[in-house]
Amino acid sequence: MRPNFFIAAVTTLAVLAGPAFAADKAAQQAEIRKATQVALDKFYKAQPTLKGEVEAAPGYAVFTTYGLTFIVGGSGGGGLAHDAKSGKDTFMKMAQASAGLQAGVAQNDVLIVFKSKKGLDNFVNKGWEFGGQGAVAAGAAGHSAGGGAGQQEIAEAKTYSLTKNGLEVGAALTGTKFWKEKGMN
Q1: Ranges of the chain whose pLDDT falls below 70
Q2: Segment 6-36, tens digit of pLDDT
Q3: Strand 59-83, strand 89-114: pairing
Q4: Which of 14, 49, 53, 119 has its CA 20 to 30 A from that of 60?
Q5: Closest Cα partner for 123 from 180, 55, 85?
Q6: Model's pTM, two decimal places?
Q7: In sequence order, which residues have a C-beta less than 8 Å from that of residue 26 and are 6 or more positions away?
């Protein structure tokens, strides 16, 4: 199997997973908001200082991702970006491709805390990011051990990741695309 086909197939399946099975737009939005709050609670429990950081920020984004890696990999998922001043939620999708010394299958929660309104707006409206990443992480039944040893480069933001289920080991170059989810906003 060609690596590009493999990445595309895994990413497509991952993007389609999760709250997309809800009956209508309002139900899907409610599921995403609920998943976002559950993820935030897990982040706050793992690192209590994050709550103050999120509350003081002009906005944040939370995504649940699903991925598979072995040398090359792909992941995808969905979530929302929240503008603290207006209270507006923008529903979004993401896909990531990676290559490097890596192996694993995992479901992760990703929290992005924006340092400026401009950073939030650029993220929501432009969405493309690139960066290096390293991790030794494991998770089962929503509990995480280990964590990333690197960071996704997102302008004017800090990122955090928790492994919900699965195992990831390695280091890789990653390319990530975030975009507004059509029909959900």
Answers
A1: 1-23, 130-155, 165-169
A2: 444 444 444 444 444 456 999 999 999 999 9
A3: antiparallel
A4: 14
A5: 180
A6: 0.75
A7: none
